[in-house]
Amino acid sequence: MEATPTAIRNCPDKGYLEIDWNNGRTITYLYEDLRVLCPCADCRAHAPAKVITGKEDVKITHIELAGNYAIRLEFDDGHGTGLYTFTQMYDGEFNR
Length: 96
Ligand SMILES: [Zn+2]
Hints:
By secondary structure, this protein is an alpha+beta fold. It has a single domain (about 5-90), classed as NE0471 N-terminal domain-like. Helix content is about 15%, strand content about 35%. The chain has helices spanning about 30-35, 40-45, 85-90, and strands spanning about 5-10, 15-20, 25-30, 60-65, 70-75, 85. The longest helix has 6 residues, at about 30-35. Bound molecules: zinc ion. Zinc ion binds near residues 38, 40, 42, 43 and 79.
């Protein structure tokens, strides 16, 4: 069974996103980790990877589903091109 979110909660007072998955698990994702590990082409174009720092206070301002396989997140630093696939999120690729 593919991991699919059943609920996505933005918790700015705690600084994280919380996702309920269809198998009953709940996983939290720190804004900072999501931003620093952004999977978009621009952030990943640098070998081995661009080092992004100074995002301790970043917030997520917008969340939208991209098809039925990913979530697109917009951050308050103006960055919003990263597509976070359900598989990568469930597998912990955005948790440091
Ligand atoms: Zn990016």
